[in-house]
Amino acid sequence: MKKLSKFPLFRIYVSIFLSFITIWNSNSQALKIQHDLVVAKDGSGDFRYIQDAVDAIRVYLPKRITVRIKKGIYKEKIVIPSTLSNITFVGEEGTVISYDDFSGKGKMETFDSYTLKVMGNDITLENLVIENTAGRVGQAVALHIEGDRCVMRKCKFLGNQDTIFASGENSRQHFINCYIEGTVDFIFGSSTALFENCTIHSKVNGYVSAASTPNWVNYGYVFKNCKLTADAGVDKVFLGRPWRSFAKTAFINCELGKHIVATGWDNWSNVANETTTFYAEYKNSGEGANLNARAKWSHQLSDEEAAAFTTEKIFAGSLKPSLNTFWSQPSFIGITGKIDSSYSNNSAYLNTKKSHPITEIVPEKSLSSVNEQKAISYGKIGERALLLDVFSPKKVAKKALPAIIIIHGGGWRTGNRTQHHQLARRLADLGYVCFTPEYRLSTEALYPAAVYDLKTALRWMKANAQTYNIDTNRIATLGFSAGGQLSAFMGVTAQNPYFEGNNANLNHSSKVQAVVDIDGTLSFVHAESGEGDDRKNTSAATYWFGYSKADNLKLWEEASPLTHVGKNTPPMLFLNSSVDRMHAGREDFRKVLDQNNIYSEVHSFPDSPHSFCLFNPWFEPTIKYIDEFLKKVLK
């Protein structure tokens, strides 16, 4: 700076230049394009590449523009971000957008495999061929669309498994006069989508649709006046199966080829889905439309019911009246999007000390024998990263180590992943690799989002087993309170695809070899529970489910580990306080384990508070019981 002081004019020029750059950056959006464009591979248009044109467009356009794409094969992986709207992309005869990514290609997952990804609203695609040419290698998406009020007109979508991901919980998409081909679940996702006058072509035996409709959405996927065709030799195709248990799909006035199976619909190997899905048909024709052997749990719409499937009503986006009523109840806090920090080790200590004066804080301190890695992302929900911490022995092991996923409590509404750091350190010192993940609480997302997140974390652990030197055949879930319920639930639902959540690392199983449940309920509906017995919506479970027990008993039953316990349940350790309701259903649960010759243990702490495992004098024996149990069952 002293040298520059000798050159005052130079300093002035630098200042002017920096000011110009600042002005340029602040006005960069004003300089972006907001008029019609042409993309041409031969250089005769404004751009040679589609993505370059997309990147040049002004965000949040005040009026609609058209991007005309001249014929040619554009081998591009294209993203239309959520900041772009009011754009029509129109192709010519022979305009093809092509790419060949697929799940399993490197670290790629299903939702990374798209050829075209549409996140913006009010986007129209017209006269385009969009293809994924990866072949029959598993999930390979051609169109990934989550935008709202989007229209696809006279387009062809070519692929195999998972050709179109039509999703977005509040998104509405209209496919008109389109051709869609694929193999398995080739139209899947959570959006409200209307397919009109489309040809739906199956290339092998499989499933046309796999909707994941949220339970508050009225319609889901609707196919009207469509024609379902198939390759020669294809003779066993289902109209749909539920990717999530509230899937809604209807075929109205469609021509169904003989390749459609007599039962029509599949429950995805889960009988419980038959009571929650809504699969419907109305006045379909063709050899595949014979209703004599249709699944009894599917629906045949009456004339009056079918009259409600108008374009206006399908896209109205209204909530069910019963759900509107519930959300309007003033005593229900619902999803706030804010972090509830009311429950912590310190708040639990202050509360517990009143009733149990012997309670002592367990000092939080690192151990010289344990490595700590913090804030590692194991997945994403939109732009929201899901984090976990890892605690592992510093001593290099000659063989892979057993692992524990430790799940915090807090009534599914509060608490955080640091709650059991000291427990993780101590267990790591004993030779376990411990993972403490966060998960979405009920202030952010209702059940079963927490289950999806934790299973995603578990599969992520297995996918990164080599990095952390863990044995994927020796993994335990461990949780306290709400975390105990989630730990048990993960153990009993490992074979159930409904509870897997998103497609991250789905090539890895969510099966575990042991479960530790520390004062977590086994049943929300058991006589011993007392959870949600009033209708004032004050219970933690009511906040988590979004329904009181009286309003949706089946949902409360579904979330109870006792509902799912069976021959595939791993060995279980139950550590319990003297608060009886916190182990509701335990003995009935153990009876099923005994019937299937599955090992279990129970250790109860007399005259102990619910949060006993966090504090001394109960912390040390808790570690002892956990270590002894895991050494028995994780051989």
From TrEMBL:
Record-listed E.C. numbers: 3.1.1.11
Entry's family note: Belongs to the pectinesterase family.
Record's keyword terms, sorted: Aspartyl esterase, Hydrolase
Keyword Transferase listed: no
Claim: Transmembrane is one of the keywords in the record: no
Protein's recorded name: Pectinesterase
Source species: Arcicella aurantiaca
Cross-referenced Gene3D superfamilies: alpha/beta hydrolase (3.40.50.1820), Single-stranded right-handed beta-helix, Pectin lyase-like (2.160.20.10)
Chain ranges of the Pectinesterase catalytic domain: 36-317
A single GO molecular function term of this UniProt record: pectinesterase activity
UniProt xrefs under PANTHER family: ACYL-COA THIOESTER HYDROLASE YBHC-RELATED, PECTINESTERASE 53-RELATED
Catalyses which reaction(s): [(1->4)-alpha-D-galacturonosyl methyl ester](n) + n H2O = [(1->4)-alpha-D-galacturonosyl](n) + n methanol + n H(+)
One GO CC term on file: cell outer membrane
Biological-process GO terms, alphabetical: cell wall modification; pectin catabolic process
Ranges for domain BD-FAE-like: 388-581
Record: active site: 185
Pathway membership: Glycan metabolism; pectin degradation; 2-dehydro-3-deoxy-D-gluconate from pectin: step 1/5
